[in-house]
Amino acid sequence: MAHIAIDGRKYFDFGIGTYIQNLAAGISRSNSSHEFTLLVSPGDLGRIELPPGWQKRATRLRKYSWGEMALLGHEARKAGADLLHEPHYTLPLGLRGRSVVTIHDLIHVAFPQYFTIAQRTFAQAVLRHAVRDAGAVITGSYEAKKDIVSLFRVDERRVHVIYHGIQPSFKKLEDRTALQDFRHRFDLRRPFLLYVGSVKPHKNIPALLKAFKRLTSTHRDLDLVCVGESLYRSRELSALVDELGLRTQVRDLKRLATADLIRAYNSAEAVVLPSLYEGFGFTAVEAMACGTPAVVSNSGSLPEIVGDAALVFDPSEPGALESALETVLSDRGLRESLAANGRRNIERFSWDTAAGETIKVYESVLNEFARS
After folding, report:
1. What's the Rg (C-alpha) of the chain?
2. What is 176-347's CATH number, 2.60.40.1220, 3.40.50.2000, 3.40.50.300, 3.40.50.1780?
């Protein structure tokens, strides 16, 4: 039996928080004999409800700091951990192979223009250290693995593809009253397209807003609902909404509780993921689980993840997103076909499977370290 620490300081973040929460729950259900400790920020200590038998330990080290790089490994060892799982690329120094790192994407490398020189320098140095010094690397798609191997010239045998899962609560809802209540509470009176995620530049939201504006010339009763990071946190996006005259048709619901997020998926005409890069694409999987057709870009891992269960467009092709949205809105048979394909496709994504495969990676790294 080993003692494994997991860095949980991003427990309430968007994609990585979803990963940490569901991986921990899956590991708990696996009845693993190992001992687990979650390292968390002091402010989150009372907010996190751990799986039975787990421990939590506070650390004051800030995310994305040189302090975490220098000292988090020491804090994991002080907690008695034999191995640290870093669920983001910020793997601390000094673990000498007794570590596993999950790299979800390579945004800083793929799109350096979206970051300051300091951000690029930090990310690229830390990524290089992570892929070279971790006992093993986990990533969420074969496309992401290909990028990691080719960009950092790492032995592909050290990079393990483990698909993320989907929570069972994400499903097609038959309770029409609950959906009507959701729409009433958020004053969603018209049909809508749904975007779920952050407003980071690689999410390609300006292209979505412009395509939606053109679409409203033929779909005047259509809204665009945005969930997640507030659209209006970005001055540029807020100004673009006003410039396009969309303030009344772009609805910003911000972050929703899981139950309401599921109702949003179930209520939407289609879900849109126009990203220029995704390492996995939780939004697409959640849409498929809820039986809602998805329109996604052909960038990064998205084609691999959605298979034949989404309408895929080329974000570099002018008019492609608008055309794809028009198609999915006007073709009922296509929407039904995508929903049926989605129900089959989501069978590939299980947090219990992901947890079991992750534990095998832990054990492989521990065994390798014991032999060295």
Report:
1. 21
2. 3.40.50.2000
